[in-house]
Amino acid sequence: MSSAYFMAYLVTYIRLVSFTTPKEEKQGKYPIMKFFLLTILSFFTLTATAQKSDTTIRYFNAQFEPVTKASSVYKGLEYQENNKWIAVVVNDSGNILMTGMYKDKPLKVKHGLFTYYYSNGKPQIRGQYNNNEQADLWMTWHPGGERKDSVYFQTGYRHGPAASWFANGNPRYIGKYLYSYPDSSWTWYHENGKPSTKEKYDGGKLKSLECFDTLGNYSGVGCALEKAPTIKGYYGGINKYIMDSLYYPEEALKKNIQGIVDISFTISKEGKLEQVKVLNTPDSMLSNEVIRVLKSVPVWYPAIEHNRPVDLSQTLKIPFYKPGNVPIQRDP
């Protein structure tokens, strides 16, 4: 291994250790430290045999679930430590994407600290599992490292104080959950730090609502808490607009090309079409037609969340079938 690779892993190791829990630090416990000391110098030899008899090469899918090598997306290692199994998943560049603790060697029961990372090496999500259920405090961060969300879990349910922040550091919301239902008082904020709504709940039911403009001025009790993006001057929603505007490409008809186009896109809080991505398509002729229709929308109104415009991503399935050839949807 070159000195550059070694230093890169050393920096990653230092960063990882810095995210141990305060309780672990107080007790002098660094559950991932021994694992990394053993693997920093050996990680680039993963295609060979593992360096220790109890260190095993493992393969993972895009959801970081253990799979066979043939169906894998990522490579990683597992190592036993204090009656738990620690797993580390990396991408092709060697960047760490996930570290986690399991109760069992097959890595089926999550039990302990998990940290998920952005490709830039900064933490994205961090929290505890207890027998595959989220527990205690979970935190998320923006790609730049700024805090994003903080929420407590109990037996897999959001339960207790919750807060979120914009990347600029201003609060996004402050509230409380009762077994995953909003409870008691919630305050949502505009990105400039001014309140957008003040909401009171009782067991998930909204009891009162106050609305505020972007200057923080009270504007009444009638405002949208959740509204999908809409098309200016058009009624019926994006699905109807697409079906009304779509043409079956003539060449695709002649070649008997049929199927479903899966496509995702984002309508920004400014009302712009962004991040159009074809997830699956029988042929580019069909997906190009869907993209054409999306781009033909003259003006978008953005989604509304708690009296604020927000970015919203959507995934659609657009069918292309000749008359009489639409497959029958059967109940599972």
Explain what you see.
- With 332 residues, this protein is of the alpha+beta class.
- It has 2 domains: 3-223, Outer Surface Protein A, domain 3 (Alpha-Beta Complex), CATH 3.90.930; 227-320, Fusion Protein Consisting Of Minor Coat Protein, Glycine Rich Linker, Tola, And A His Tag, Chain: A, Domain 2.
- The chain contains 6 helices and 23 strands.
- The protein has a 15-stranded antiparallel β-sheet with strand order 2-1-3-4-5-6-7-8-9-10-11-12-13-14-15, with no helix packed on it. It has a 3-stranded antiparallel β-sheet with strand order 16-21-22, with no helix packed on it.
- A hairpin with a 2-residue loop joins strand 13 (195-202) and strand 14.
- The model is unreliable at 1-53 and 326-332 (pLDDT under 50).
- Supply the helix-strand structural class: alpha+beta
DSSP strand content: 35-45%
Rounded Rg: 24 Å
At CATH level 3, the topology of the largest domain is Outer Surface Protein A, domain 3
CATH architecture of the largest domain: Alpha-Beta Complex
End-to-end C-alpha gap: 51 Å
The shape, in one word, is flat
Secondary structure: number of strands: 23
Helix and strand pattern: HHHEEEEEEEEEEEEEEEEEHHEEHEEEE
Subunit arrangement of the protein: single chain
Spatial strand arrangement across the major sheet: 2-1-3-4-5-6-7-8-9-10-11-12-13-14-15
